[in-house]
Amino acid sequence: DDDDDDDDDDDDDDIVRLVQNAKSILPPSPPLYATDALTDRTERFVVAELIRQALLECLRKELPYCCQVEVTAFKLRQKPPSQKPPQKQQKKNRRGGRRPPNDKTKEPTMTNDNNNNKDNESTTTNKKQAVRIAATIYVERDTQKGIIIGQKGAQLKQIGTVAREHIEHFLQDHSVYLELHVKVMKDWRKKEDSLKQFGYLSND
């Protein structure tokens, strides 16, 4: 064990020296990306990778490394149209008629209702924006599809729960509605069309 620790230390030293030597010979230039840029890939790509991460976390060695995730839908859910509050009916006077327009009698204030309205407004403001995501998990064998789905869909449900937590952490101020499907694409890793579809090969 001590020998293994020494080997790890030597590897770390080599990496440090490699980085230092690379910096010394690289020409100075402005940054290619913004300092706060997380990645140059799209949100769809990152979401697909987070779903695949959830697959491996939930299934571990049970699932071969032959699954591919493709995001098929990524949409912000539209907010329902705002409804106008019902207009208050004018109070009738003692004779049964409506109060005249020039009557300056104050209407009774409903303190509790006003407070409730304020609470409702603040609650609505703090609600997260919802995102609907649909994705397809591709595998190469029917047996692999069965492993991912699990008994009565229990395994797929667990994978979806873990993936949704990862995605919400990545998107931050969004609640995620995640829909997962599993399909068999036999020997997709050996087919050029499939590799192009998933971005492993260029279409040139």
Describe the protein in words.
The protein has 204 residues and is an alpha+beta fold. It has helices at 2-25, 43-59, 111-126, 142-149, 154-171, 192-197; strands spanning 68-76, 129-139, 174-184. It is globular. It starts with a helix and ends in a 7-residue tail after the last helix.
Could you write a compact summary of the structure shown?
With 204 residues, this protein is of the alpha+beta class. It has helices at 2-25, 43-59, 111-126, 142-149, 154-171, 192-197; strands spanning 68-76, 129-139, 174-184. It has a three-stranded mixed sheet with strand order 1-2-3.
How are the elements arranged and paired?
Elements lengths: L1 H24 L17 H17 L8 E9 L34 H16 L2 E11 L2 H8 L4 H18 L2 E11 L7 H6 L7
Parallel strand pairs: 2-3
Antiparallel strand pairs: 1-2
Helix pairs in contact: 2-5
